[in-house]
Amino acid sequence: MNSKGKYFPSSSVAAHSPEIFSAQDRQLAPRFDASQEPYRAQIRQQGEFESIHRDMIIGFKTWEFNPMDLEDPFPNNEGSVHICQGDEAGLVPVVLQRYVAERLP
Questions:
Q1: In terms of Cα–Cα distance, which of 97, 77, 78 is closest to 87?
Q2: Is the dihedral of CA 96, 12, 90, 3 positive or negative?
Q3: What is the predicted pLDDT for the residue at 13?
Q4: CA nearest 16: which of 48, 39, 54?
Q5: Three-state secondary structure along the chain?
Q6: What is the pLDDT of residues 41-77, one digit of tens each?
Q7: b vs e for 14-34, b when ≥16 Cβ sit within 10 Å of the residue's Cβ?
Q8: Are 26 and 97 in contact (CB under 8 A)?
């Protein structure tokens, strides 16, 4: 067991850890926190375990499709999709971001 008495470390998201955010994100966080306050009770209305458990299932289960197999939805350049990513993103590892960016047109 680690020093906190847990067998597994908690998720940074579930633990509300600010380390998942970039310096710029942390500067903007107070603005977004204030706008979310009216909805905070709804976020985990089914309980902490149920809410986090469902998020983890979606994040780690086998999906019915492979994102790498997606075809270009705009083959004639009539639209685009913007993916926000970066070296400082704490939710999605930069190695995975680069892999997806290199594989998808």
A1: 97
A2: negative
A3: 64
A4: 48
A5: CCCCCCCCCCCCCCCCCHHHCCHHHHHHHHHHHHHHHHHHHHHCCCCHHHHHHHHHHHHHCCCCCCHHHCCCCCCCCCCCCCCCCCCCCCCCCHHHHHHHHHHCC
A6: 787 788 878 877 887 787 778 888 887 787 888 888 8
A7: eeeeeebbeeeeeeeeeeeee
A8: no
8's tokens:
């597994």
Query: Which two three-digit tokens encode residue 76?
Result: 């004639």
Q: Are 19 and 12 in contact (CB under 8 A)?
A: yes
- Token code pair at residue 94: 């930069």
Q: What tokens does 50 get?
A: 């149920």
Q: In a 10 Å sphere around its CB, with 0-12 CB exposed, 13-18 middle and 19+ buried, how is residue 45 labelled?
A: exposed
> Is the distance from CB of 75 to CB of 4 less than 8 angstroms?
no
